[in-house]
């Protein structure tokens, strides 16, 4: 397990260790998409990890899916995120923003313009989504025109530039569940243009998004998150699913991206395939990773970094808990999203550190 504590060169930055804070939607931004008043404290508390990947951050009004999620495309967003970045950097950490365009996982009540969601095809996911008025059925999205696909790709590139302007170290393309994944999946993509049909066509959107961002901010500042085993939200890539992801990863490898971030759901063979295909860093997230296997994937050479979500959410000093083999605080799902009745700190910045617990200081 010792290798996970060692520094690592990721693109143009050196990380202080190989722990990564996975992106986690918290829905605590201001209504205009600027980070909320406690965002800098929340991320700063957890900056002892080598790399922080922020919550999903929309690159445009059309990209928003859920209420109170942050954006990175206006001057106000840039100014708000700069404070967050300063807090992370002051503690020796580094930060990539996760660029998340929700696609069909959206509702007009949740977006600034209250327009219908857009997606590869006009196919609803058959799911409900949270709004400030409660759970509602997700309406059928509008299919993007070919010209609108090009404009959407440009939105990603522009938001990546704004991220760097705000002081971020890079961006991560969100390729799980949302728009990028919706182009990959046959169940959500029935297009007949150059973005639908064959494996190559369905992967084209993800590749062109990555190319556009690389052209804007550089490959060494660009990562992507993928999950070959994800089947939620009505997504089905089809029987050739593993081949889709092998092709996509091979094409992305040619761009020299800083990393791929894999959310793993059980197909060990494809992880080994990625290790052979991919020549840059691999971040591996196993959602149900046992505690005694922390660092195992790095030690085996299967991954270069490991990401953790709920454990870091509930344990701002996660690494201290791991080193001391101390019990973890438990993450309470009921306080994951949105501002809480008990106050803005509840379930966000009020988790006790190990030092505080040992000294008997209330959280």
Automatic annotation (TrEMBL):
It comes from Sphingomonas quercus. It comes from the Bacteria. Residues 4-323 form the NADH:flavin oxidoreductase/NADH oxidase N-terminal domain. Pfam families: Oxidored_FMN. This is Alkene reductase.
């Amino acid at each position: 397990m010792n290798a996970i504590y060692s520094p690592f060169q990721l693109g143009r930055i050196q990380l202080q260790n190989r722990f990564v804070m996975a992106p986690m939607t918290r829905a605590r931004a201001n209504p205009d998409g600027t980070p909320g008043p406690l965002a800098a404290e929340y991320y700063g508390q957890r900056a002892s990890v080598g790399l922080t990947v922020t919550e999903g951050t929309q690159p445009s009004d059309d990209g928003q899916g859920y209420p109170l999620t942050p954006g990175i495309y206006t001057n106000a967003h840039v100014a708000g995120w700069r404070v967050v970045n300063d807090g992370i950097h002051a503690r020796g950490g580094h930060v990539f923003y996760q660029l998340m365009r929700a696609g069909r996982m959206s509702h007009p009540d949740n977006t600034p313009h209250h327009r219908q969601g857009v997606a590869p095809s006009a196919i609803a996911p058959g799911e409900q989504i949270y709004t400030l008025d409660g759970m509602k059925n997700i309406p059928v999205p509008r299919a993007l025109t070919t010209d609108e696909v090009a404009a959407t790709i440009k939105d990603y590139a522009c938001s990546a530039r704004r991220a760097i302007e705000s002081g971020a170290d890079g961006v991560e393309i969100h390729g799980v569940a949302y728009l990028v994944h919706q182009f990959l999946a046959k169940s959500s993509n029935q297009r007949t243009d150059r973005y639908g049909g064959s494996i190559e066509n369905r992967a084209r959107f993800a590749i062109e998004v990555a190319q556009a961002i690389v052209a804007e901010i550089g490959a060494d500042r660009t990562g992507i998150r993928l999950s070959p085993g994800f089947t939620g939200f009505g997504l089905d890539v089809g029987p050739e699913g593993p081949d889709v992801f092998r092709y996509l990863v091979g094409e992305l490898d040619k761009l020299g991206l800083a990393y791929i971030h894999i959310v793993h759901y059980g197909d060990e063979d494809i992880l080994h395939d990625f290790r052979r295909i991919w020549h840059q860093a691999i971040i591996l997230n196993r959602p149900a990773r046992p505690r005694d296997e922390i660092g195992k994937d790095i030690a085996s050479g299967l991954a270069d970094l490991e990401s953790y979500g709920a454990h870091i959410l509930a344990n701002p000093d996660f690494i201290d808990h791991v080193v001391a083999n101390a019990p973890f605080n438990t993450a309470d799902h009921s306080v994951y999203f949105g501002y809480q009745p008990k106050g803005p700190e509840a379930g966000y910045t009020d988790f006790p550190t190990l030092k505080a617990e040992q000294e008997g200081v209330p959280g």
